[in-house]
Fold each of these.
Amino acid sequence: MTAADPDIDAFTRPYWDAAAEGHLLLRRCTACDRVHHYPREFCPHCWSEDVTWERASGRATLYTWSVVHRNDLPPFGERVPYAAAVVDLAEGPRMMTEVVDVAEGDLRIGMELEVSFRREGEVAVPVFGVRSEG
Ligand SMILES: [Zn+2]
């Protein structure tokens, strides 16, 4: 385990299993019909426990970002510079992630992105790149 490993338990296991297969999962609340991310056992909007897993489209738009040029925490040190970002998922939730394969000068608020997964040790971490046509 490293400092960057996500906290995987019985509850978040389906999320990481889906990620390993290339799918981003969200949680949809049956009571208020809102979607959230990162997965929680309770709906953060109405506190209902009646929340189910749902596969996301993987589409998002860029909300904001910060290009990180220095990070001493492994494994980030080997990866700088990288674009730490917040994206708006098509389904509504905002998600902290990383934008990959886009030059720093090409990053634009509202640019269309799609999810891909980067293998990090035991897990596949969702990152976002430019959405391909179609
Ligand atoms: Zn709810």
Amino acid sequence: MNIRVIVIGFQSRFFGVCDAASVTERNVVSMQMLLNQDIINKCVCHKCPVQNQSECVHTQMAELKNSLKETPLDPHKIPKAYCVNGKSLCKGIDHSKPCICGSCDVYAKYHLSEGEPGGFYCFEGKSV
Ligand code: SF4
Ligand code: SF4
């Protein structure tokens, strides 16, 4: 399968508000976050109770193989990697259930606990 890459979209905004001395390790790592096959493979959102009752998410999951073949990728068709893609547009996301991002290798690798928000990216938006 081809790997297509979307550069996360906040790099220029970030440099617009911070000087170089204030760039932390976490900021540098987050700027390097790319939507790629590795992140999609490691993402555990498909097991998460927050979204696994949503019909819309089920449909997106069933179509995921085809959605990943599209060029460019449409992040809103991919029910995973919300820490990079941002919020889900699906209804049926249940905010009262626990987010399981903390069990994900991507979460540890990119120090996402140090970013904002600290999880629930599917309805809080991507990590910055
Ligand atoms: S941190 Fe959460 S949203 Fe990001 S890849 Fe892991 S499970 Fe998915
Ligand atoms: S971002 Fe967190 S809350 Fe949302 S589906 Fe993924 S693991 Fe669950």
